[in-house]
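User: Could you go from structure to sequence for me? I need the amino acid at each position, not a summary. Structure tokens:
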């Protein structure tokens, strides 16, 4: 079955204040996290990912500044829709070092035209809006929510045709759910370094 066309997007707008360093420069096993993420997304989607959230990057990648600055991932999603022409965009963050390529391939293959959002949902009710597909038909609602100061990604799910990727599906490829681990603090970074070392060993 032919996969639905989607543009992969990596959000790089976060400043990493809690971490104490710019997340763009996060490195594990001598490789930048964003380079690993870029490579995986390019392989799965067959097109170069867009970096969104900065004027420039200290790397040879195309980057696009947010059209509405300072409002977090919702601003990144708006910018993604305004700078792509595919029916869907896939949005992820620059601080997720253990994205599972097979899981993402499965998710892309399972994407359906009728869905407006395709997003992971855990048994405890946790959703991961920064590892999800969003359909272009959301654009007007997204603009409306931003206009009225609602910057929460979860709000976008209300009344929409949402397909949830279940924890059972995820565990087929990523039993420990490490795909959704992100680095926000120095403690997170230490844990990521230890995990990366264990995987190498």
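Assistant: Here is the amino acid at each position, in order:
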């Amino acid at each position: 079955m032919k996969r639905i066309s989607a543009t992969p997007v990596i959000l790089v707008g976060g400043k990493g204040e809690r971490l104490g360093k710019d997340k763009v420069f996060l490195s594990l096993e001598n490789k930048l996290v964003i380079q690993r993420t870029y490579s995986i997304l390019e392989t799965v989607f067959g097109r170069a990912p867009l970096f969104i959230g900065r004027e420039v990057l200290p790397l040879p990648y195309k980057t696009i500044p947010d059209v509405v600055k300072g409002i977090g991932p919702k601003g990144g999603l708006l910018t993604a829709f305004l700078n792509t022409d595919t029916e869907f965009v896939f949005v992820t963050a620059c601080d997720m070092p253990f994205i599972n390529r097979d899981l993402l391939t499965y998710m892309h293959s399972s994407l359906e035209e009728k869905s407006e959002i395709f997003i992971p949902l855990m048994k405890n009710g946790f959703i991961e809006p920064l590892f999800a597909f969003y359909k272009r038909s959301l654009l007007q609602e997204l603009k409306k929510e931003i206009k009225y100061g609602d910057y929460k990604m979860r709000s976008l799910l209300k009344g929409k045709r949402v397909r949830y990727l279940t924890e059972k599906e995820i565990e087929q490829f990523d039993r420990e759910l490490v795909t959704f681990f992100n680095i926000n603090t120095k403690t997170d970074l230490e844990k990521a370094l230890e995990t990366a070392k264990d995987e190498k060993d």
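One structural detail worth keeping in mind: The chain has six helices and nine strands.
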